[in-house]
Amino acid sequence: MDMKLSPEQMKLRSAARELAETEFAPKAAEIDRTEAYPFDNVAALKAAGFMGYTIPTAYGGRGGSYFEAALIIEEMARVCGATGRITVEANMGAISAVMQYGTEKQKRLGADPFFRATNPRSASPNRKPDRRRPR
User: How far is CA 24 from the centre of its chain?
Assistant: First the structure.
């Protein structure tokens, strides 16, 4: 299939590629080796607007399409498998079911973590993440 990207989609893919290559690629082997959760990568994804990209704007997201999210995911996964998987879940995982079928309260509650704390185990972005591996 010959897919032609719109200028906006090309700009999105380029921004995702630049972030992936400059921020995530240099750390990918270390993330794999240590199996540490890449909280810094999540923060960078949030700052770029790539977490919750498919969440409707009414709930704080960008309201992007799944195709556009796939462009982002492809660039992340190309350099760092862990970050690629995080990006999948942040845009196409359970949050998509909540946005499609949830109540208004569930939608607001479901979208909130994507735009709040860096550490998913913390309500405060100032708390230091726990990078220890479970034993």
Answer: 12
